Amino acid sequence: MARRRLGFWQRFAVVLVKPVMTVWTRRAWRGMEHLGRSGGMIIVPNHISHADPLVSAHFIYDSGRWPQFLGKASVFRVPVIGWILHRCKQIPVERGTVDAVKSLDALVAAVREGGAVVIYPEGTTTREPHLWPMKGKTGAARLALATGAPVIPLAMWGPERIFDPRTNRLSPRPRIPVSVVAGPPVDLSPWTGATPTKAVLEEMTDAIMLRLRDLLAEIRDETPPPLWERPARRGHAERPEAAA
Question: Which of 49, 158, 173, 241 shows the greatest Cβ crowding within 10 Å of its Cβ?
Answer without folding.
Answer: 49
